[in-house]
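Chain and conformation:
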Amino acid sequence: MLSTNLIEFDGLDPLESRLWRVIQTAAFQRLRRIKQLGFSEFVYPGATHTRFAHSLGVFHTARRLVSIIKKFEQRNGVRYDDQHAAPALAAALLHDVGHGMFSHAFEAVGKEFD
């Protein structure tokens, strides 16, 4: 089944508003030029997505997970605190910002020189 869900930012949630501003930064936009799967596209021609798209997807998944946890806690009488979601969502969004191009492809080479 093909999913057509898009990540929506309505600007009403203060955390999402801050994260939207983070997405607009040069550091995050740089991820548009970095391939997520390195050299894999030479074997799998469709494997061409970027770290930008991957990071947005991880954020979307984390946001869905937070929503599930929130519903579970509320259903079980646990007081849910939105403050706990903020670091998890920010980490999900930003987890690839420090990666360079082909960084995983060269990890084995780097270990040889350690």
